[in-house]
Amino acid sequence: MSFVDKVAEGIGNFVGGTQGETDRAGNEIRQDEQNFGNDVRQDEQNFGNEARQDEQRFGNDISNAPQEAGNAMKGAADWIGNKVGEAVGEGRSAENDVQQEGRRFEGDVDQFGQGVDNSYNQGEQQGRQEGF
Description:
Elements: H1 3-130
C-alpha cells in the first residue's frame, strides 16, 4: 500500500469514524427526544389523572357540604329542643311542687284555724260553766 493509499485510508477511516459518531449521537438525540416526549406525555397524563381525582374529591366534599351542614343544624336544633324540653319539664315539676306545698300549707292553715275554733269553743263553754 502506497503512502497516498494509506493517507486516503486514514482520511476515510477518520471520516467514517466521524460519520459513525455523528450517527450514534443522532440516534442518542432522537432517543432522548423520544424519551423526553414520553416523559412529557406521562407527566401530562399523571397531572390530568391527579386533577380529575382532586376535582372528584373536592366535588364530593362540596356536594356533601349541604347534607353535613343540615345534619349539624339538625343536631343543634335537637340539642336545643332537648334543653328547652328539659327546662319546660323542670318548670312544670316546680309548678306542681309549689301547688302541692300550697295545698299542704292551706290544709295546715285550715287545721290551725279549726284547732283555734275548737279551742275558742271549748274556752267559751268552760267560761259559761265556770264563769269568771
